[in-house]
């Protein structure tokens, strides 16, 4: 393949949700370690919310859902336990699920040092099954938006099964305002993103595409090393409240309330994101 053909391919918008690389992004040791480092830097929100926001969010959840002894919480995509370990301090029975083994190991170490009892499961939450049922299931930092339509349907069906009668599903999404603010672009740099993609020398190409009809953006990364080329896709679905409620209803869930975020801020339709509390229909 000529250089011209390769450049034309990487600058051509691929079919929507055609290439899923989420698990590859989070499980390869070098990238997983760099991602964990971002997670644990509570001063920014590159991979997780800031420490101040997380603590405010946990206080809001605890009060709103009455968390404590006798209640059960599941955190899907729990990462290094930034929410789960804090929620366990309420006395609730907490389960954290994530397919990043490094993140799960870190979360367990923190829990053990603090004398906290948390069940951590190294698994893909799309295929997670358990006999436990929960008062609250959470999915934080807009993970829902990274899933294709079929994956979102499977997730919501799983959540419906995990919830106790009267339980709640709390999650956040990117809004149409965020989609409207996005722009298509192309970026090239040696060691793009400060060496995040590989421990070896590489050249990185990032293309951002917009899918106007579907309200989806894609950040496509092509990483060229000496002996291999890798492609990673970060898809983001954007929602308004009506579209989100339609997906919930199709899986037997209903909207209980709209919020500005998972810390209980009032809903603002002009903001770049919002949160939703859902329950069994």
TrEMBL record:
It holds the Pfam family Methyltransf_25. GO terms for molecular function: transferase activity. The keyword Transferase applies. InterPro entries: Methyltransf_25 (IPR041698), SAM-dependent_MTases_sf (IPR029063). This is Methyltransferase domain-containing protein. PANTHER family: TRANS-ACONITATE 2-METHYLTRANSFERASE-RELATED. The keyword Chaperone does not apply. Residues 73-167 form the Methyltransferase domain. Keywords: Transferase. It comes from Virgisporangium ochraceum.
């Amino acid at each position: 393949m000529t250089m011209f053909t390769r450049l034309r391919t990487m600058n051509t918008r691929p079919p929507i949700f055609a290439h899923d690389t989420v698990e590859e992004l989070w499980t390869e040791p070098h990238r997983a370690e760099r991602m964990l480092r971002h997670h644990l830097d509570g001063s920014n929100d590159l991979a997780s919310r800031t420490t101040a926001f997380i603590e405010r969010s946990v206080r809001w959840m605890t009060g709103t859902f009455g968390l404590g002894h006798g209640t059960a919480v599941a955190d899907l995509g729990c990462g290094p336990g930034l929410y789960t370990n804090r929620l366990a301090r309420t006395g609730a029975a907490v389960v954290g699920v994530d397919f990043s083994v490094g993140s799960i190991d870190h979360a367990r170490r923190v829990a053990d040092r603090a004398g906290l009892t948390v069940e951590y499961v190294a698994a893909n939450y799309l295929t997670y099954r358990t006999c436990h049922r929960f008062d609250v299931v959470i999915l934080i930092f807009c993970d829902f938006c990274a899933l294709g339509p079929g994956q979102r349907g499977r997730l919501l069906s799983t959540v419906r099964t995990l919830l106790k009668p009267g339980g709640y599903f709390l999650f956040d999404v990117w809004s149409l305002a965020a989609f409207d603010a996005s722009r298509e672009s192309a970026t090239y740099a040696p060691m793009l993103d400060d060496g995040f993609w590989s421990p070896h020398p590489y050249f990185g190409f990032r293309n951002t595409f917009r899918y106007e009809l579907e309200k989806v953006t894609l950040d496509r990364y092509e990483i060229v090393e000496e002996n291999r080329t890798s492609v990673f896709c970060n898809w983001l679905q954007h929602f308004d409240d009506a579209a989100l409620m339609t997906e919930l209803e199709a899986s037997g869930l209903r909207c209980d309330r709209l919020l500005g975020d998972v810390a209980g801020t009032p809903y603002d339709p002009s903001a770049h994101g919002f949160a939703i509390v859902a329950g069994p229909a």
